[in-house]
Write a structure and sequence with these properties.
Chain A: Keywords: FAD, Flavoprotein, NADP, Oxidoreductase. By secondary structure, chain A is an alpha/beta fold. Chain A is built from 10 helices and 27 strands. Chain A has 2 domains: 280 residues, FAD/NAD(P)-binding domain, CATH 3.50.50.60; 169 residues, FAD/NAD(P)-binding domain, CATH 3.50.50. Chain A is globular. Chain B has 302 residues and is of the alpha/beta class. The radius of gyration of chain B is 18 Å and the shape is globular.
C-alpha cells in the first residue's frame, strides 16, 4: 500500500482525438472527471469521485485550496472578523469532523486550515491544477465535455481536454450584486461592496451607511457601530435576528433537536417566535420594522450583537434607500442622511461565464439555473453543479452528499444504464423543485434550502438510484 | 522479525467460499443505505475530552498509511504500546494507539456511550496527517465498525472482534460467570488472565497486564449487548478479520461470522489468548496485518 507522494501534475497520458473549432488538438482524458474549482465543494467532489474509483482533474484559478474561505484569494469575500454562522456539527464534512476542541462557531482562518487538512489527509492536491482557469465547457457527442483552460489571467496558450463528466464548483459568493439607485453616480462619498470590506479600520471614524441585513450586512453594521463615528443600517424589511445561542446552546442545535423530534414547521415557528420574544424582545421599540414574514421564510440571520449595539444607540436602524444625492442619501421615509461611506452588503449572484446559460436551463439568461436538487442538469446526465445551495446550516455537508450522489450515478451509468436513465428522467421531470417552505421571492432566496428537507430529498434520490 | 514472518497463519478451511461471496458483498454494501440525516448527532454533539494518543513513527517516512490501534473495553493505548506500535514503526508504518475516553490516560467519562467512543476514534483518525487504517481489538472492533460509518478509513482490521449481541454475553458467562455477571448489572467486567493470555506468557507479565485493566462505561457495556448494528462503512474500505481459535472470549464461530460480514474469512492464530497484542507470540498477528497492508488490499486508491 503506497501513497503517491509526488506533488506532480495529473497524469498527462492522453491521446489526441479531435480538433477544436479553431484547430487545436483535444486531448482525451478517458473516464476522468473534471472538477472546476478547489473550494469546499470542489474538494469534496474530488475526494468522493476518487473514492468511487474515478480519475479526477481539478482546475483552480487560484494557487491554493479553500476557495471563498481562503482570504488570500482576490475573490474571497471573508473579512477579518468572519466567523461561522452555523455551528460546527452542521458545517463540517460528514466524514471528516472538525477537531472537537474548536469553538462552536470557528473563525474563517480555522476553516481554511480545515480545508487544507482535508486536502492533505485525502491527498487531493495531486489532482489539482492550480493557477489554471476554465475558459469554456462545451458538450460533445456521447455526453462528454470539452474543457478549455488557460493560465489564470489569460497568459499562455489555451488547452482543451475531453472529459467523461464535469462538476461545476466555482462558488456563488464572489460576483457582487450591486443594486442601482437614482443618483448613485453623482454621490460624492465613498462606495464599496461588502466583498471589498476586509477590516474594521476601513470604517474607523467615518459616518457609515450599511445597506442590507444579510449575515454580512449585520456583521459589518456591528463593526461600524463600534468603529465608525456614526452608523446607519438600512434594511428593506424587518427581520428576525436570531442570537447565536438560545437556551444555552447553539441556536441551530436547538432547532435540529426539534427537527429530529419531527415537530411540525408551524409549531417550530411558534416556538421560535416565542423564544425570540422572550430573549431578543420586541424590536419595534428600537425603531426597527416588524418582520413581514414568519421565521424560516427568509434566510436566517444569526447575530447576537446587532440588537445589543442598536440598544446602545451605536447603530441607527433606517428604512430602504430610495435615491442618492451628491452629499446625502434619501430614505424611504423621506429622511435624508449624510454618510461618507456606503457599504453595500447586498449579496452575490452566481456566474458561470464558461458555460452556455441554456445548458443550465437558464433560457432567459437571468442567471438562475433550473436544476434538480440544485445540482443535476436536465438533458445533461454527466454535468453537475456542486454547492449551489444556500441552506439554513452549513453548505459543505450538502456538497458532500451531492458529490456522493453524482459519483454513484456516474458509476451506475456503466453498471446499470437503465437506472441511470431513470434518474435522468427524474431530473428532467423535477427540475426547479424547492426544498424549503415558502420563502420571500428575491435573488437572495434563489438557492435557499432547508437543510433537513434537502438532505431528505438527497437520501431518497440515493435510495431510488440504488434499490430499483 | 524475520523468523516470525516465516510462520504463515492458518487460514480457516471454510474460506474456499470467500471469493464469490466477496463479490456479492461488494454489491451488498452498495445497496446498504448510508444515513444522511443525523439530527440527534448534530443537535447533541459529543463533548470533547482529553485523549491519550501514543505513537511510534518510522525513522524514514516511506509514504505508508498511518495505523490507528483501538483497544477494547478495559484496555488502554498501553496495550499496543507494549509491542505492536514499535514493531509496526520498525516496518515503516507510522503507528498510533488511542485510549477511549475513561480508559488509560484519557479523561474520565463514566457516562460514555459507544457513539462517544467512535467519536474519539474518528477525531484521532481525522487528526492524522493522512488517511488512516483503523485496527480495533475486542470491543474496540465494534467501536471501529461504528467509526467506519463516520470516517472513510484506508482499510480496517478487526482483531478478535467482539461485535456485540447476546451471544457475546453468553460466551463470557459460560467461560467466566463470576467476572461477567456484575457487568450485566452495570458493574465492572472482569476478564480473567486465562481468557486473555495463553499459558506461554510468563505469569509475571500476565499479572502486570491484568493489573492495568480498567473498565468501560456502563452505558457502553449495555450498548455492546443491545445496541444498534453499525451503519455501513463509508468509502468501502477493505476489512481484514483475525483472531485465535483458542480465544476464550471470542469463539471461532464468531470470528467466521464477523469475517463473513465483511466478505472474507478470518486469519487464525491457534494457541493464543484474546489479547493477541500482549500474548507471547504477539509478532505473528501484527506481521500478518502489515503483510496484508503491504500487499495493498485496495489498489484502486492511490
Amino acid at each position: 500500500m503506497s501513497t503517491s507522494t509526488d506533488d506532480g501534475r495529473p497524469d498527462p497520458e492522453s491521446s489526441t482525438v479531435d480538433l477544436t473549432r479553431d484547430g487545436r488538438p483535444v486531448s482525451d482524458r478517458g473516464d476522468t472527471v473534471c472538477v472546476i474549482g478547489a473550494g469546499a465543494s470542489g474538494l469534496t467532489a474530488i475526494k468522493n469521485l476518487s473514492e468511487h474509483g474515478f480519475g479526477v482533474d481539478c482546475y483552480e484559478r487560484e494557487t491554493g485550496v479553500g476557495g471563498a474561505w481562503n482570504w488570500r484569494h482576490d475573490r474571497s469575500p471573508v473579512y477579518a472578523s468572519t466567523h461561522l454562522i452555523s455551528s460546527r456539527p452542521f458545517t463540517q464534512f460528514p466524514d471528516f469532523p472538525m477537531p472537537d476542541d474548536w469553538p462552536d462557531y470557528p473563525h474563517h482562518s480555522q476553516l481554511l486550515s480545515y480545508f487544507e487538512r482535508y486536502a492533505d489527509h485525502f491527498d487531493l492536491r495531486r489532482h489539482i491544477w492550480f493557477g489554471t482557469e476554465v475558459v469554456r465547457v462545451e458538450p460533445v457527442a456521447g455526453d462528454r465535455w470539452d474543457v478549455t483552460t488557460r493560465s489564470t489571467g489569460g497568459y499562455g496558450p489555451e488547452r482543451t481536454s475531453r472529459y467523461a463528466a464535469v462538476v461545476v464548483a466555482n462558488g456563488h459568493n464572489w460576483s457582487p450584486k450591486l443594486p442601482s439607485y437614482d443618483g448613485l453616480a453623482e454621490f460624492r462619498g465613498e462606495i464599496m461592496h461588502a466583498s471589498s470590506y476586509k477590516d474594521p479600520a476601513q470604517l474607523r471614524g467615518k459616518r457609515v451607511l450599511v445597506v442590507g441585513a444579510g449575515n454580512t450586512g449585520c456583521d459589518i453594521a456591528v463593526e461600524a457601530g463600534q468603529q465608525a463615528s456614526r452608523c446607519w443600517h438600512s434594511t428593506r424589511r424587518g427581520y428576525w435576528y436570531t442570537p447565536k445561542y438560545v437556551l444555552g446552546r447553539p441556536a441551530d442545535q436547538v432547532n435540529d433537536a426539534l427537527l429530529a423530534l419531527r415537530v411540525p414547521r408551524r409549531v417550530r415557528q411558534w416556538l421560535y417566535h416565542l423564544t425570540l420574544r422572550l430573549t431578543v424582545g420586541d424590536l419595534t421599540r428600537f425603531g426597527l420594522p416588524k418582520p413581514d414574514h414568519r421565521v424560516y421564510e427568509t434566510h436566517p440571520i444569526a447575530n447576537s450583537q446587532l440588537v445589543y449595539h442598536v440598544g446602545h444607540g451605536q447603530i441607527t436602524p433606517v428604512p430602504d434607500v430610495t435615491r442618492f444625492h451628491p452629499y446625502a442619501v434619501e430614505l424611504a421615509d423621506g429622511r435624508q442622511i449624510d454618510p461618507e461611506l456606503v457599504v453595500f452588503a447586498t449579496g452575490y449572484l452566481p456566474r458561470f461565464e464558461f458555460l452556455d446559460p441554456k445548458i443550465l436551463g437558464d433560457d432567459a439568461a437571468t442567471g438562475r439555473p433550473t436544476l434538480w436538487l440544485n445540482a443535476f442538469v436536465p438533458g445533461h446526465p454527466t454535468l453537475a453543479v456542486a454547492g449551489l445551495v444556500q441552506p439554513d446550516s452549513g453548505i459543505f455537508t450538502l456538497s458532500h452528499w451531492q458529490a456522493v450522489l453524482f459519483a454513484r450515478l456516474l458509476r451506475l451509468r456503466v453498471t446499470h444504464p437503465d437506472r441511470a436513465a431513470a434518474f435522468a428522467g427524474k431530473v428532467t421531470a423535477k427540475a426547479g423543485e424547492r426544498y424549503s417552505g415558502p420563502v420571500k421571492d428575491s435573488t437572495r432566496h434563489w438557492f435557499e434550502v432547508g437543510h433537513a428537507d434537502y438532505l431528505r430529498a438527497v437520501q431518497r434520490a440515493l435510495r431510488d438510484l440504488e434499490t430499483r | 522479525m524475520g523468523g516470525s514472518r516465516g510462520t504463515r497463519p492458518r487460514t480457516n478451511a471454510r474460506c474456499s467460499g470467500a471469493k464469490p461471496r466477496s463479490r456479492e458483498r461488494k454489491v451488498g454494501t452498495v445497496t446498504q443505505q448510508v444515513r444522511i440525516m443525523r439530527g440527534w448527532e448534530w443537535a447533541r454533539p459529543v463533548r470533547p475530552v482529553r485523549r491519550e494518543v501514543l505513537g511510534a513513527t518510522p525513522e524514514v517516512e516511506e509514504g505508508r498509511p498511518p495505523l490507528l490501534f483501538v483497544p477494547g473495553f478495559g484496555h488502554g493505548a498501553w496495550a499496543f504500546a507494549e509491542h505492536w506500535l514499535g514493531h509496526a514503526a520498525g516496518r515503516g508504518f507510522p503507528a498510533y494507539a488511542v485510549s477511549l475516553r475513561g480508559h488509560g490516560g484519557s479523561g474520565p467519562a463514566p457516562d460514555a456511550t459507544l457513539r462517544a467512543y467512535a467519536h474519539d476514534v474518528v477525531q484521532v483518525a481525522a487528526g492524522l496527517p493522512r488517511q488512516a487504517v483503523l485496527v480495533g481489538h475486542g470491543a474496540g472492533a465494534l467501536v471501529v465498525a461504528h467509526a467506519l460509518a463516520r470516517y472513510p478509513a484506508r482499510a480496517a482490521v478487526l482483531v478478535a472482534p467482539v461485535l456485540g449481541g447476546w451471544g457475546t454475553a453468553l460466551t463470557a458467562l459460560r467461560r467466566n460467570p463470576l467476572g461477567t455477571l456484575p457487568a450485566l448489572a452495570g458493574g465492572r467486567l472482569r476478564l480473567s488472565r486465562s481468557q486473555l493470555f495463553s499459558r506461554e506468557l510468563p505469569e509475571a507479565d500476565a499479572r502486570r497486564h491484568a493489573a492495568r485493566l480498567g473498565r468501560a462505561a456502563r452505558r457502553a457495556q449495555w450498548q455492546l449487548l443491545l445496541g444498534r448494528e453499525p451503519e455501513p462503512a463509508v468509502g468501502e474500505p477493505p476489512v481484514l478479520v483475525l483472531g485465535s481459535p483458542d480465544d476464550r472470549v471470542v469463539p471461532a464461530a464468531a470470528l467466521t461470522r464477523a469475517a463473513r460480514r465483511y466478505g472474507s474469512a478470518p486469519l487464525l492464530f491457534p494457541g493464543m489468548g484474546h489479547d493477541l497484542m500482549l500474548d507471547a507470540r504477539w509478532r505473528e498477528p501484527v506481521d500478518a496485518i502489515l503483510d496484508w497492508l503491504e500487499k495493498d488490499p485496495d489498489p484502486g486508491r492511490g
